[in-house]
Amino acid sequence: MLIMLFILLNVKIILFMYNTEVVNNNIWVFLMSFFVILFALACIYSLNIKKKHWLAFSFYSAVSLLMFVDVVYYGYFNTLPSVSLLSQVGQVAAVGDSIKELISIKRLILVLDLPLVFIYIIRYGKYRKKHEKHSMNLRVVLPVIMLAVIAGMFIYLRNSDLFISVSNQEFFMYHVKDIKNYFIDNEYMEGSYRLSKGEIEELRERTKLTQGKYTAVGKGKNLIVIQVEALQNFPINLFYDGQEVTPNLNRLIKEQGILYFNNYYQLLGRGNTSDAEFVTNNSLYPSMDEPTYVQYESNTFYGLPWILRDNGYTSWVFHGYKKEFWNREKAYVNQGFQRFLSEEDYEFTEEETVGFGIIDEVFYKQTMEYIKELDSVDENPFHAFIISLTSHTPFKMPERFQYLDIREEYKGTILGNYLQAIHYADMALGKFIENLKEEGYYDNSVIAIYGDHFAISSLDKDQKRLMTDYLGYEYDLDEMMKVPLIIHVPGLEANETIDRIGSQLDFLPTILNIMGYENEKGLMFGRDLINYKGENLVAPQTYAVKGSVITDEILIEMSRDGVFENSRAYNIKTRELLDVKEYRHLHEKALSEINKSDYILRTDFLRSFK
Ligand code: GP9
Ligand code: MN
User: Fold this and answer.
1) H/E element holding 136?
2) pTM for the predicted model, two decimal places
3) Ligand 1 contacts CB of residue 325 (under 6 A)
4) Given this model, what pLDDT does residue 75 score?
5) Whole-angstrom Cα distance, residue 580 to residue 560?
6) Spacing, Cα 55 to ligand 1 middle (Å)
7) CA 265 to CA 246: how far, in whole Å?
8) Which of 73, 329, 356, 418 to mutate to test the pocket of ligand 1 (most atoms within 8 A of CB)?
9) What single string gives the DSSP state of each residue in 198-220?
10) Closest ligand by atom to 321 CA
11) Which of 85-94, 502-511, 601-610 reaches the highest mean pLDDT?
């Protein structure tokens, strides 16, 4: 029976390696898993207990289940999960629909056999007791030999340059390392990483407001920021069979007073939508351990709401979902928001919900009423941060909200569904903007609109093929992570498309330049995309592994095994593959920026910063 489990587990290792795209040092990765399994089963075999078949089955089930969780997580995030995410399991129910989409047969097969093996053991168990009698020596010697082999391999890897690569890809090594890092290692607390005086000064300089183009053109105006769920850049100006997908945003982009950033990227950590909010408002990199709103709920921050409040504004945030989700309710306090209008503050019927909750139209309509209340707080301008929801994956809109004619071949595909959902989101947003005009807010408010993150993954082979076929060019990481940023400044006599590279990290310095307020008590890692003259870079850590870089010219996709030399680099415009070794300096710059920002979060640096 143990032999059967051993064979099945080896098949599962291969499936796991296939699902998690192990491409470097495969033989080492496989051998390590092979010997660990052999060792574990040999230990069980050597025990002198009656129920050892159940112990073996427990081991088998635990490994199978963990592999299954890993590959499902990997399917979405392109990285293996960390033990630190266990605190987030409560969120799983809410994203159930999205998870269902990820459970394909190539992943499910890792656990499908468990009931069959269970039944087999019930029968085999009785038979086994009578027949199994092996010499005591073999029972002891076998695990010892296996342990020696594993130790030998480990020592060899440790002393070679294969260690990083194998330990980042191999099932057991990855999880042991992750648990060790979580519970034992904390390089920041141990003081091995510190921000130097020079680095602090450089960041302080970077954070200053300098006079330049469009500086303070929005001073004294209200600021309305709308974060649109899963709004990617590719639907902008897209026509599907002659039907305009986002007619309202397209019309807006052409208006006077518009700055449209069309080379702008998401920048998320473990907290998805909530990280898009965090990065946008604080110009700090998100945490990679847990959602930043959870891990650093009580840190001191000095982002957009605080800065505006210090300039007399009142700052409220609006989102039509449960207030506990992403720990928003608690985190918003230190983020600087004075009031959070969540699902419980809105009235809606069952008919007025889709997926997560309230449909955008109903949400925006009632938000308008709250904005009037916010406006009446005092004579000063206000800041409203509005987070939409309906265009959430898996984008399955009920028929009554499907307004586009989708060709048969795209019906039910993620692209067909997404086009319907984002078309709806655009329609609702268009109505809201009209409403802002009617209520007299359009001409005295700066309005910024952007997408929180991607909708369709280029990391999923089927989705990538679907998108590449449809768009007629390769749908790669850069197109996937690109979201639009549209800023309307009333009275500005310009209409500009700004195509330099940037990300949500750059929002705060960019909007502060427009609003004309200085960040006096914080530090920002982003750049003002209108005035910054140097080379900017985007340093994603999710979907592309930490160490990846996007610049105006190139994209470096850090290798999955953590070894820079194995990474892929390509020219973003010509898509020509490049020799990655020539771009090490960019990779190191990205790492150093992330580490500095991480230090600020871990040490709650802004609490005592002056
Ligand atoms: C939930 C919403 C969606 O409140 O913000 O979050 P997401 O699943 O996109 O991170
Ligand atoms: Mn989202």
Assistant:
1) helix 136-158
2) 0.88
3) yes
4) 84
5) 14
6) 40
7) 19
8) 356
9) HHHHHHHHHHS----TTTTTTTT
10) 1
11) 502-511
**What number is the average pLDDT over the span 5-34?**
93
Nearest to residue 441, comparing CAs of 490, 487, 486?
Answer: 490
Candidates 38, 48, 8; CA nearest to 143 is 38
Tokens of 295: 């891990």
Give the bridge partners for 449, in sequence order. Answer: 226, 486
365 burial via Cβ count (<10 Å: 0-12, 13-18, 19+) = middle
Following DSSP, what letter does each residue of 392-404 receive, concatenated?
A: -TT----GGG--S
Helix then strand then coil, % of the chain, to nearest 5: 50, 10, 35
Tokens 């999955």 belong to residue = 560
How far away, in angstroms, is 284 Cα from ligand 2 center?
A: 19
- For 2: left if phi > 0, alpha if psi spans -120 to 50, otherwise beta; the answer is alpha
Question: Is the pLDDT at 125 greater than 80, yes or no?
Answer: no
| In the predicted structure, residue 130 carries a pLDDT above the cut 70 | no
Strands 502-503 and 258-265: parallel
Confidence of residue 106 (pLDDT cuts 50, 70, 90): confident
* CA atoms within 13 Å, Cβ hemisphere of 129: 8
Q: Are 38 and 5 spatial neighbours (Cβ–Cβ below 8 Å)?
A: no
Ligand 2 centre and the CA of 191: distance in Å? 35
Give 548-558 pLDDT, tens digit per residue.
999 999 999 99
SS3 296: coil
Q: Check if 392 has its Cβ closer than 6 Å to any atom of ligand 1.
A: yes
Q: How far apart are the first and last CA of the chain?
A: 66
How far are the Cα atoms of 55, 138, 152, 526 from residue 46, in angstroms, in the given order? Answer: 12, 8, 22, 58
The amino acid at 451? G
Question: Which amino acid is it at 458?
Answer: S
Ligand 1 atom with minimal separation from the 322 CA = 4
E strands, 309-421, are: 314-319, 339-341, 353-354, 357-358, 382-387
Six token digits for residue 63: 């490994």
Q: How far is the CA of 273 from the centre of ligand 1 (A)?
A: 5
- CA 107 / ligand 1 centre spacing (Å): 24
> Going by CA atoms, what residue is nearest to atom 9 of ligand 1?
273
* Atom of ligand 1 minimally distant from the CA of 387: 5
Does the structure show a pLDDT above 80 at 199? Answer: yes
Residue 314 tokens read as: 């009142």
pLDDT of 132 reads: 54
d(CA 191, CA 470): 51
d(CA 414, CA 108): 20
Of all residues in the chain, the percent with pLDDT exceeding 70 is 96
Distances (CA, A) of 156 to 17, 38, 160: 22, 19, 6
pLDDT at 121: 85
Amino acid identity, position 98:
S
Tokens 């020596």 sit at which residue? 137
Whether 312 shows a pLDDT value over 90: the answer reads yes
Check pLDDT > 70 for residue 22.
Answer: yes
Of residues 423 and 109, more confidence is placed in 423
Closest ligand 1 atom, residue 325 Cα: 4
Query: Where are any strands of DSSP class E within 351-501?
Result: 353-354, 357-358, 382-387, 445-451, 482-488, 495-498
Rounded distance, CA 546 to CA 590, Å?
8
Mean pLDDT in residue range 171-181: 92
Q: How far is CA 293 from the centre of its chain?
A: 13
pLDDT above 90: percentage of residues in the chain? 80
